[in-house]
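Section 5.1 Outputs to date
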Amino acid sequence: MRKALLQGTLDLLILKALATGQMHGWDIAKRIQIVSKDRLKLKQGSLYPALHRLEHRNWIEAEWGISDAGRSAKFYHLTAKGEVQLLEEKEHWQSFADAVAHVLKMKEL
């Protein structure tokens, strides 16, 4: 069963993937899927709008290049603003995860 990502999580995942280096959309999705041990699978219908949104916010930049398959592809990389945003997103996510963990530890009546 595939679970939907929580709102805002996709941005964090993309920024984190790009922190490892420049890559094109397909590789971003593949990296997230592999690292999550197939628990997170991004659809093109959500990945590419997110990439455009992040590019519009100047958190990432793109350049055209040639993929390993010999095809023209947009390669994305983090900007300095994106690196700062990644740190903020990670802190926000950790705070949220800690809060949920505390609630889950709550004793039942």
